[in-house]
């Protein structure tokens, strides 16, 4: 799905801002549907509060029942559309993401429904719009997670009224981050001509000094009898035409002589180099950035442009004070500055697809990305039935369709820490992984992230790269750093004896309260985090020249979780605080990663 943009044939406007908002606190949570709140202004059916878009609604007020709310939340705003948009075009209403199920009405008419957070959805709303007066968009968003949503969850009711108040329920989740909800990213209105470019797929290859670019477009609307005329030109970063093609077909191969390749940080001077392809299809113009690079996996290497790539990275979250998972340009720019400061060359979008604006920064700044689906917490049989499988595949398709042209995306991760030792996991994940492979035109490697020991895992056989999360001397043998060497090495050897595939340690980390100190080090202190990471580094350094192709600290920054006995206002395994200030271990990682980047 193409990201909205302005061009000679397209216009856009963003509907972000302060919207009207009401959470449906009725016991059944269905009052809004029973009373049809979308048929008139939200303020006519009851009190409304101000709610920023984009943002999670949870931390905006001082109301605990809204912070922990589960159910339908209602948003509404007015907007105007200029009469010059009233003919000869499509007008698309697009949500870059809303968590989790959404129903959208324009002027009381339902225009779309979507299941799943973290990914865009859109619909042509031309027929529902007024061009000579105000328009109203109403959105109902439900954050309830069930055994078949992604991530899965479960609502547990307590009916013993001697112990629990009437109507008491909790949402049980097998994931270690706060289930922030709301309209998390931009809301757009954008236009296209009635005959329009629906999608562009760019595949690149390298032949000597030439870049080979295969560009396929799919089109929509009233397609002319002939295939329509397609003109494709590629521009370098200075805006000079470097190649072009004019044909009647929707596939063009163009050759860029002396191509500048896309490289991740540390591998070459041309970090994050991108070209732009301009497609003109019967007057509809769209500009798509792309990078020329190849990705391959061998028995023990991860190759980018045929050179061994070693990932020195972090896993992240979309998470910050006040806005929760809401997109914020200051935050994401600061995050990329801190990634560069740390010397990071790779991130994992744990545990869901991140905002497209984040992905664009990764493309531009040469930060490789392991693009992860929201398949986190798949622990039970009820999460691996036919309905879950169908939805999981749909989500993978949506994700690939959104991110397939991104040079930064070097691998797809279909899930984090599923019960890959259970008897239903193998057939479920075989199917999801095969589907993912078949959907990606660029055939990137596919993985899932495992926390299961090599003796019990049943899914690693289907992946291209073994990704493992390990917490020796934290959850296992807490405080005993002397076990790390033995236990990590045992796991490496175990997986290698089963599968000749490269390994990435996608998580290892220790909760650390900033400002807490002890010598000798003690769990939760800044010193322990340093000692802990360094103990792992010794094992990584042994395996690095052999089969280990990456190490990723859990986590870039502290982040919010649900309340629980293991979490002191959130997960504190960040190298940075939630406000993005470095803990002591951040300097250790910075020294290590910059040395790795310069090949020392
Ligand atoms: C994990 C999970 C991650 C948690 C982390 C932790 O294995 O993948 O979501 O936050 O451990 O800190 O427990």
TrEMBL record:
Residue intervals of the Glycoside hydrolase family 2 immunoglobulin-like beta-sandwich domain: 195-293
PROSITE patterns linked: GLYCOSYL_HYDROL_F2_2
Protein origin, superkingdom: Eukaryota
Pfam families per the UniProt record, alphabetical: Glyco_hydro_2, Glyco_hydro_2_C, Glyco_hydro_2_N
GO biological process terms on file: carbohydrate metabolic process; glucuronoside catabolic process
Provenance organism: Elysia marginata
Family: Belongs to the glycosyl hydrolase 2 family.
Protein name according to UniProt: Beta-glucuronidase
Residue ranges annotated for the Glycosyl hydrolases family 2 sugar binding domain, each copy included: 14-193
């Amino acid at each position: 799905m193409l990201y909205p943009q302005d061009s000679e044939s397209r216009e856009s406007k963003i509907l972000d801002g302060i919207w009207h908002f009401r959470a449906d606190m009725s016991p059944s949570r269905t009052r809004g549907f029973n009373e049809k709140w979308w048929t008139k202004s939200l303020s006519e059916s009851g009190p409304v509060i101000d709610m920023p878009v984009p943002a999670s609604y949870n931390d905006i007020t001082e109301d605990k029942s809204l912070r922990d709310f589960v159910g339908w939340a209602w948003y509404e705003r007015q907007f105007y559309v200029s009469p010059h948009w009233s003919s000869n075009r499509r007008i698309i209403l697009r949500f870059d993401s809303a968590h989790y199920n959404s129903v959208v009405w324009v002027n009381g008419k339902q225009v779309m429904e979507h299941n799943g957070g973290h990914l865009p959805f859109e619909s042509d709303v031309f027929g529902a719009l007024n061009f000579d007066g105000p328009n109203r968009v109403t959105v109902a968003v439900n954050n309830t997670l069930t055994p078949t949503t992604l991530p899965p969850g479960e609502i547990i009711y307590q009916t013993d009224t001697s112990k629990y108040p009437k109507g008491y329920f909790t949402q049980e989740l097998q994931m270690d981050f706060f289930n922030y909800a709301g309209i998390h990213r931009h809301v757009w209105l954008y236009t296209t001509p009635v005959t329009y470019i629906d999608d562009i797929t760019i595949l690149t290859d390298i032949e000597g000094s030439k870049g080979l670019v295969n560009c396929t477009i799919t089109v929509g609307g009233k397609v002319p009898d002939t295939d329509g005329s397609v003109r494709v030109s590629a521009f370098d970063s200075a805006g000079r035409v470097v190649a072009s093609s004019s044909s009647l077909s929707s596939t063009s191969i163009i050759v860029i002589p002396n191509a500048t390749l896309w490289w991740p940080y540390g591998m070459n001077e041309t970090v994050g180099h991108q070209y732009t392809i301009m497609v003109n299809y019967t007057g509809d113009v769209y500009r798509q950035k792309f990078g020329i690079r190849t990705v391959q996996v061998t028995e023990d290497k991860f190759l980018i442009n045929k050179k061994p790539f070693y990932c020195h990275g972090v896993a992240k979250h979309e998470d910050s004070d006040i806005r929760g998972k809401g997109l914020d340009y200051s935050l994401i720019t600061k995050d990329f500055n801190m990634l560069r400061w740390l010397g990071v060359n790779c991130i994992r979008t744990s545990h869901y697809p991140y905002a497209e604006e984040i992905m664009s920064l990764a493309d531009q700044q040469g930060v490789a990305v392991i693009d992860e689906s929201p398949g986190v917490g798949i622990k039970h049989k009820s999460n691996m039935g036919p309905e879950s499988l169908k939805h999981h595949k749909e989500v993978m398709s949506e994700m690939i369709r959104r991110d397939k042209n991104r040079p930064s995306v070097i691998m797809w991760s279909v899930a984090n820490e599923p019960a890959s030792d259970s008897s239903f996991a193998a057939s479920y994940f075989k199917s999801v992984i095969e589907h993912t492979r078949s959907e990606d035109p660029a055939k990137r490697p596919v993985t899932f992230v495992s926390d299961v020991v090599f003796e019990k895992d049943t899914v690693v056989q289907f992946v291209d790269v073994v990704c493992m999360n390990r917490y020796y001397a934290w959850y296992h043998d807490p405080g005993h750093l002397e076990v790390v060497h033995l236990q990590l090495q045992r796991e490496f050897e175990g997986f290698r004896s089963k599968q000749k595939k490269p390994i990435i340690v996608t998580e290892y980390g220790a909760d650390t309260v900033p400002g807490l100190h002890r010598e000798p080090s003690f769990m939760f202190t800044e010193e322990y985090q340093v000692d802990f990471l360094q103990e792992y580094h010794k094992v990584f350094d042994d395996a690095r020249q052999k089969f280990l192709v990456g190490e990723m600290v859990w986590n870039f920054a502290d982040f919010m979780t649900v309340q629980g006995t293991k979490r002191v206002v959130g997960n504190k395994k960040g190298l940075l605080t939630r406000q993005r200030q470095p803990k002591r271990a951040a300097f250790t990682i910075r020294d290590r990663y910059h040395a790795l980047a310069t090949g020392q």
